[in-house]
Amino acid sequence: MSMSQALAPFAYTDRRVIVTGCSSGIGRATAELVNGLGAEVIGLDVKPLPGAEYTIIEADLSEPESIDAAVEKVGGPLDGLFNCAGLSGRLPALDVVKVNFLGLRQLTEALVPRMGAGAAIVNVASLGGLGWEADAEILAGPTGLLSTPDFAAGVAWWADHSDHFRHPVFGHGGYQASKKAVILYTIKRAYALAGLGIRINSTGPTRTITPMLDDTRAAHGDGFIDSLPRPFGRDSEAIDQARVLAFLNCAAASFVNGQHLWVDAGEVAGMLAGDIPNPRTAARR
């Protein structure tokens, strides 16, 4: 087998993909990476990115009408979707839930009909989604957030349930709830999408050197952030996360579906083994 044959499943040649949050952080690193691997990239972001080597459509994931307009501009068909856009927990809870989960869900469901067999979706959650199992019933049960039929119903659901997610360390809990919802959404959609030949997975990045990390420092202070464990002795860089996303949506991962992958240098493993304390287990208010 030649080198080009061996590497073919990792390539993006002739694949048309969308990357949300393409103007900064993990989204930008992902868009640049898969563009370099041969993909036709369409970036979605609320902010412009002058000089980008790929098409950018302005879209605000907190506004259903903006999402619908972007979908019409995208057209089809599509081979991949990288849901990288997100807001930090420093911002108002409802705004965070809208962008991180409700907007992600509406965009994904609107694009699924434009995908065929072999297409793949990857959703960027967060280490903030750790402990999603404990909230599975309230988020994904019969009356949970995932059961709401549309964006507006999701907004109403959050108004009725937001107090459940308040946390002594992480404040209003909108970020944690939204990222847990992303993980659960990925798991619950996997089997049905498999019937269409479409894969869906999610990742849970640890602290990554992006503008969002600056927001986290501003919200919780340098002392809190600097005290957190770093198994490799450093924080993740955006490209560390982008490479994993590119793998999950390429043909080399053709039998990987419905999985959530912590991309954290072993931080979660350390917590599960009892070697690292878990600040997320602090008692709720």
Question: Could you characterize what this model shows?
Answer:
- By secondary structure, the protein is an alpha/beta fold.
- It has one domain: 3-Layer(aba) Sandwich (Rossmann fold).
- Helix content is 41%, strand content 16%.
- It is built from 11 helices and 9 strands.
- The protein has helices at 3-7, 25-36, 64-74, 93-111, 136-140, 151-161, 174-194, 211-220, 222-227, 238-248, 267-272; strands at 16-20, 40-45, 55-58, 78-83, 115-124, 199-205, 208-209, 236-237, 260-263.
- Helix 4 links the parallel strand 4 (78-83) and strand 5.
- The N and C termini lie far apart (60 Å).
Q: Which regions have little confidence, pLDDT < 50, spanning 5+ residues?
A: none
**Structural class of the secondary structure composition?**
alpha/beta
CATH class: Alpha Beta
Gyration radius, rounded: 18 Å
The proportion of residues in beta strands is 15-25%
State the separation between the terminal residues, measured CA to CA: 60 Å
Shape: globular
User: Which strand order does the major sheet show?
Assistant: 3-2-1-4-5-6-9
CATH superfamily heading: NAD(P)-binding Rossmann-like Domain
